[in-house]
Specification:
By secondary structure, the protein is an all-alpha fold. Helices cover 67% and strands 0% of the residues. The longest helix is centred in the last third of the chain and has 20 residues. It is elongated and about 60 Å long.
């Protein structure tokens, strides 16, 4: 079920939405933007989706591997 919502935006935002998103897609665009901020997230599904993103996983691995080298270069703190 859907509910109709009336919102006010500046002329610039209105024109930008029409130009970038398209006249008949604004509702979908705004719902997709708002959904993660207002609905409880299924954390298991979110992690599964992130793990399925191969580019993201490759970048995360490269980043974490880079951190290991940084730690090895740090002098040990005196105790």
């Amino acid at each position: 079920m859907s509910k109709k919502l009336t919102i006010s935006v500046s002329d610039e935002v209105y024109e930008g939405l029409h130009r970038k998103v398209g006249r008949r897609r604004i509702s979908q665009f705004l719902e997709k933007l708002a959904r993660p901020h207002v609905l409880p997230e299924d954390i298991e599904t979110a992690y599964r989706d992130m793990a399925a993103d191969e580019d993201r996983e490759r970048e995360a691995l490269a980043w974490s591997e880079g951190l290991i080298g940084d730690v090895g270069d740090e002098p040990h703190a005196a105790r």
